[in-house]
Amino acid sequence: MNLFGIFSQIEKADPAIGEKMDFSRRKMLKTTSVAAAATPLFFAAMVNKAFAAEGCAGDAIEIVKFALTLEYLERDFYRAAQFKAGLVPSGARPYVVQIAKHEAQHVDLLEGVLGYKPNQMQPKYNMATLNAALADYPTFLAYAQALEDTGVRAYKGQAACLLEEDTATSRTVLAVALRIHSVEARHAAAVRYMRELRVWPSGGQNGMEPDAKIYAGEDMAMQGPINLVDYFNMSENKMKLYSPDMAARSVYESFDEPLKAAEVLAIAGPFFATPM
Questions:
Q1: Checking DSSP bridges between strand 226-227 and strand 222-223, what pairing results, if any?
Q2: Per-residue confidence band for 210, with pLDDT thresholds at 50, 70 and 90
Q3: C-alpha radius of gyration, the chain, whole number
């Protein structure tokens, strides 16, 4: 196998690959024999790990800190809405209060994983952004939907990183993250219900979006190796239950796509007084 030729081609696509692969090589050698490390399979695995790490917030501990910062924001966002006089109608108030409680419990759980004191990592907020998001009830709901849908995709993105790390710590963190992820998805559905929208992300039916990046990449026809939109539209497909537009929308709604750490920060970043 011409490793140098392959490496040269990869460098043209990603000049930083040397640093990424050096980290991956050192990490994998800890658990791989010298003989196995000389094989093409080892090289392929090393490349996969190098590129997989690109969207990660860091190792398992850094991922917990990343998640905790987002949970602080969600908790404090809902608390601010809860206590702003006249913002939330009485019919929606139980939802907002309950979501705020959930977010507070998520903060407590993640702080416990890190061994932190309460609010030890409490961030400072950009009050102009926060106040704008709480200007009125429809605006509050739009931003709530944005935060919840971003949070769901953020947890999914970091889950792949934790699986890749595969240490005792990352396995513990993954179990915690999956517990929170499913609840965040329920929050997203509840907020959409309050906005009288379909209760799952849907192309062109997400209502007012504070930031278009929230739904970037959600219109994915390819799931694994299969183009499901084409599958539903095949003439020989006996499950012709949809028009072409309905088939595409159904596929897009059926799967959620992950967000990389940098993509999450680009969306949530304006809420913070200092860069995350």
A1: antiparallel
A2: low
A3: 21
**Residue reference for tokens 């997989």:** 52
Helices (H), the chain: 3-13, 17-29, 34-37, 40-52, 60-83, 93-114, 127-133, 137-165, 168-194, 228-232, 244-254, 261-268
Residue 201: exposed, middle, or buried by beta-carbon count in 10 A (0-12, 13-18, 19+)?
Answer: buried
Enter the pTM of the model.
0.78
The position carrying tokens 């939109």 is 229
Give all domains of the chain, ordered by start, each with its CATH number: 3-208+264-271 (1.20.1260.10), 219-254 (no CATH)
Query: Looking at residue 31, what is its pLDDT?
Result: 47
Q: Is the pLDDT of residue 179 over 80?
A: yes
What's the mean per-residue pLDDT of the chain? Answer: 82
